[in-house]
Amino acid sequence: MNHDDKYLYYKIDKLFWRWKKQDGARIVHEVSLSTDNAPPPFPASLVAKSNAVPSPAKPPKPDPTVKMINDLLKVADSVSRFRTWLNTPVTPKPSEATKIVAPKKTVPPFDIQEIPNALRKEMMPHRSDVNGAMVCRPIELLRSAQRRTQGNQSGRQAVPA
After folding, report:
1. Can you give the three-state secondary structure of 124-146, one letter per residue?
2. Is 60 helix (H, G, I), strand (E, B) or coil?
3. Would you write out the chain's pLDDT as a tens digit for each of its 161 residues?
């Protein structure tokens, strides 16, 4: 066997994740691995961690049969609670007669001429308070509506409001 002989080897194709056959591997006889040297020093940060108190031991695993029995008891308990909930009678809803009916708030009777004074009392704008803007004028609206209907009945044209 000659030192210049080339051998076949396999290399991974990272695109398709397949092994491809390659040609050109050589055996090198002059190189060898040695374990004569001492290992490198251990890092100081890891030395402190290795000297630390070991973590407490994990509790032993319960016996599988005991665990299975406990799990079955939990399932049976939840099924029994569901059945009792399912079999409890429905609480009756209060009937119409037993319900307390709150009296409805009603507005006391009022005269239409009291509206402007009530608006002033509540600090709401009124026609005389806003420069010519007609915000609230119920009496004038009634009168203009009456004039329009009277004008149409007499054959005259309606008076613009």
Report:
1. CCCCCCCCCCCCCCHHHHHHHHH
2. coil
3. 565 677 888 888 888 888 888 888 877 777 777 778 888 887 777 766 656 666 778 888 889 999 999 999 999 999 999 999 999 988 877 676 666 777 777 777 778 788 778 878 877 765 655 544 444 456 666 677 777 666 555 555 555 54
Per the CB < 8 A criterion, the answer to whether 144 and 161 are in contact is: yes
Element spanning 87, H or E: helix 64-87
Distance in angstroms (rounded) separating the CA atoms of residues 57 and 111? 90
CA-to-CA distance for 147 and 138, rounded, in angstroms?
14
**C-alpha R_g of the chain:** 50
Q: Which residues pair with 19 in a beta bridge?
A: 12
